[in-house]
Sequence to fold (331 residues):
Amino acid sequence: MLRTGKKFSKPSLSRVINGDVVLSEKSEKQPRIRLDHTLVKLHPEYNRNTLQNFIKLGYVFVDGQVATKPNTPLSEESKIELKLPEALTNPETKMEEAKKVKPDTIYEDENVVVFNKPAGLLSMAKGDYCLEPTLEDYGLLVHRLDRDTSGIVILAKNPETQTLLRKQFQDRKTHKTYYAIVEGRPKLASAVINLPIARNLKHPTTFIVEAGGKESETYYQVLKTQKFTHQDVQRIRKALEKTGFTGTEFKEGKTYSLIELKPTTGRTHQLRVHLKYLGTPIVGDRVYGSAKPDSTDRLYLHAKALEITIPKSNRRTFEAPLPPEFNIFED
Fold:
């Protein structure tokens, strides 16, 4: 007798149906244990972001070895140790370190203190814990300067003064003047740059000129321009030996300009973004200019003056002298 019907295309499946093979259930996969997740449970006094930073800084040990990756896999037997430096666990130690690098005081009274911030000093801590001194170690922060920007900064000594000063920045009732050394020379000797600035979505920590961005306005005036010869570059580098900067961003045969800048708005990176858009980025700018990430030179941007009203209705203008590394142009 001829039989017709559907044939199995998978012999292995037919053996299962016939009972020749018995399927066994696979054991459930064990959950992966991550270092940062475990630290959160062991040290609830810190948030996860802070603990991840501790890991990256080399403060966490797994079985006696430094672990620098938050996603380091662990076993149930892993021994974890968190070893923080004294500057993080002892406030007095950090305060002593802060006193050693305290900026030069321009003015001080019972309500405010005005500093000439050096390039390299942070305005505020990145995260909840910071090993290095910041402006916040000396008073209440009112406004910020980028780490690599030097110059005038005002701090409050009490919350009431902090609120008063901050409102002036928000209402654009302060007047700020900056000096910068830029690559090349703008086409116009003086002009107002009125270009909106927005966050760069491709690189969220940076900003770009873009329609639809926030209103941003900067007045500038070219003060000096010079094409540097080989002798000029050698002179500059020798003159900067005592400043802690190298002058390596100044190149032979290139033109540079000293520019006065007066922003009427206070967008993040405003001056750097506007000058890049003009094709004249600030010398030493590792983000918006031609400086390499490992450059040993500074960002040539200095907050020269600040006009502001301090308590008791005193309208004052505070000035910080140009650092010696800015005095490189021939008269």
